[in-house]
Backbone:
């Protein structure tokens, strides 16, 4: 009997609804036979300009990622990535357009931590790369393959993990740059396994020939550095192929960077430059490329480890003065938040902070979200309409990503605050620990609905503006004159909004007056450091020369009587 037309139509509709493309990933036995944990990522690109793993971003040119958690993946098992996997920017594989793509799979490995607080969690340990899932040594992936993907049928595509990211060779000591790495007793106890922190150390000119001199310590906070940044002992490479940086609309920015590095070397070794020890700290956590230099429920006592273990060891080995008046900090973005927080939380340990474009220092302006009054982080909501909140702009205010975009990308890369990216790391630092051992979200990662209970915890423990005002009666005499903040008024991440609010609090402080300094760069974007004489693409490269010389003058008026201000100025 022939089928009716209606029956045929219904069967066709059912096949379209219930059939779907599936990607099968077999256990990669060539790399061992131990069970594996991690985040398995399917990366899909419309081009082969670079591997798909290097083309995931917040902006409109991002390529596609889908992710699933992998727990106890045993030999012989095959994992499936299909329509149940969450994706970004296309959320569901059923919505993926038919086409020919470059396809790659990557396993971001987790290890199990049995923490001091009793929680057992699975997280990616940093392996020398600064918590980047696409370059982390030991992660497994395949060389990209070109495939036809169709959602009009039930394609079953097998992709084999055939490569492993190799180890990273640690940097070598030179005449000027040394490296230190110590096992932290505090962090090892918290995480239940050996944990290390370290630093790249730039020694002053004449350090070897002035063996009796002790030096101030200049601490440059920022993201995970692979070596001391901004210092080069040779002129720019004449054969360097010029690159193009769209942000600055400049060709040959790589040569500009090398020239600035070489110029700093000449200043550092030349006459008249303050002789200090400059350091960049390496303190990656299982959540991010650094700890934000404070103690926290999810990361453990990183602030104490840096202040009481690492810094004294550096000063001991390399002849630092070793007193709070002779230490100062500077940094931008993450580093900008860190130096202000460390100055406030350890007021006697440091004699000044220069905070450039800091991450949100007042949570009434958590970028463009007021976590205390707003109900939803992703939308401004009215009776008939809701509008997406912006997350990233250029100096003209043109928006290329929303806060929702940025968070959904992180959600595809990792659940439980494990993406290794910005909003997740803020939760790892600012949030209380949840019942499952992972950070309690400040908002629902998918919907954006804010948790007011978590917001109150953030306020009492990490809202720097609120804490400064609340505790000024205890902090005022220790912080007077030590706070300097710089931010472009067109910061790409709207970080200037929090600086405005923080400045308002500073102006209200009395007994004593804060004697702080806040400055803004006209149309300056992220990383502006306060130098009005240079464009941002230059000033962002001059943190060392700019802030070290500033502090060397200020310390003359902000140091105990009788301390040595001369021997290190040869």
Residues:
């Amino acid at each position: 009997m022939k089928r009716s037309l209606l029956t045929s139509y219904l069967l066709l509709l059912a096949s379209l609804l219930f059939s779907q493309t599936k990607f099968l990933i077999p256990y990669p036995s060539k790399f061992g036979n131990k069970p594996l944990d991690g985040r398995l990522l399917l990366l899909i690109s419309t081009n082969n300009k670079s591997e798909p793993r290097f083309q995931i971003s917040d902006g409109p040119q991002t390529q596609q990622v889908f992710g699933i958690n992998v727990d106890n993946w045993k030999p012989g098992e095959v994992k499936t990535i299909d329509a149940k996997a969450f994706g970004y920017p296309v959320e569901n594989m059923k919505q993926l357009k038919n086409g020919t793509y470059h396809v790659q799979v990557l396993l971001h490995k987790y290890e199990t931590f049995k923490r001091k607080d009793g929680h057992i969690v699975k997280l990616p340990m940093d392996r020398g790369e600064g918590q980047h899932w696409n370059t982390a040594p030991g992660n497994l992936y395949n060389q990209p393959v070109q495939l036809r993907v169709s959602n009009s049928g039930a394609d079953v595509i097998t992709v084999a993990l055939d490569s492993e990211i190799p180890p990273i060779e640690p940097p070598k000591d030179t005449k000027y740059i040394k490296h230190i790495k110590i096992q932290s007793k505090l962090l090892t106890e918290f995480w239940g396994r050996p944990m290390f922190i370290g630093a790249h150390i730039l020694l002053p000119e004449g350090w070897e020939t002035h063996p009796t001199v002790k030096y101030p310590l200049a601490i440059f906070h920022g993201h995970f550095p692979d070596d001391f940044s901004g210092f080069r002992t040779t002129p720019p490479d004449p054969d360097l192929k010029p690159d193009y940086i769209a942000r600055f609309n400049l060709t040959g920015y790589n040569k500009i960077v090398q020239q600035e590095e070489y110029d700093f070397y000449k200043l550092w070794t030349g006459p008249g430059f303050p002789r200090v020890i400059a350091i960049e700290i390496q303190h990656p956590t299982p959540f991010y490329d650094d700890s934000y230099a404070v103690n926290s429920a999810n990361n453990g006592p990183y602030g104490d480890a840096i202040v009481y273990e690492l810094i004294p060891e550096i000063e001991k080995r390399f002849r630092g003065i070793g007193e709070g008046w002779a230490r100062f900090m500077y940094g931008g973005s993450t580093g900008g938040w860190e130096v202000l927080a460390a100055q406030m939380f350890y007021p006697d340990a440091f004699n000044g902070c220069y905070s450039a474009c800091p991450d949100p220092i007042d949570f009434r302006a958590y970028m463009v979200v007021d976590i205390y009054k707003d109900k939803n982080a992703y939308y401004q909501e009215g009776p008939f309409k809701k509008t997406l909140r912006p997350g990233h702009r250029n100096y003209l205010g043109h928006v290329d990503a929303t806060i929702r975009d940025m968070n959904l990308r992180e959600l595809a890369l990792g659940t439980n605050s494990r993406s290794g990216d910005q909003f997740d790391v803020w939760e790892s630092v600012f949030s209380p620990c949840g019942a499952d051992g992972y950070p309690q979200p400040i908002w629902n990662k998918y919907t954006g609905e804010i948790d007011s209970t978590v917001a109150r915890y953030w306020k009492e423990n990490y809202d720097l503006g609120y804490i400064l005002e609340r505790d000024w009666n205890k902090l005022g005499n220790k912080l007077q004159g030590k706070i300097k903040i710089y931010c472009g008024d067109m910061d790409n991440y709207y970080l200037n909004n929090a600086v405005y609010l923080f400045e308002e609090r500073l102006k209200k402080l009395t007994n004593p007056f804060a004697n702080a300094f806040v400055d803004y760069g006209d149309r300056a974007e992220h990383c502006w450091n306060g130098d009005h004489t240079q464009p941002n693409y230059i000033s962002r490269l001059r943190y060392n020369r700019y802030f070290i010389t500033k502090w060397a003058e200020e310390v003359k008026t902000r140091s105990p009587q009788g301390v040595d201000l001369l021997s290190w100025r040869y």
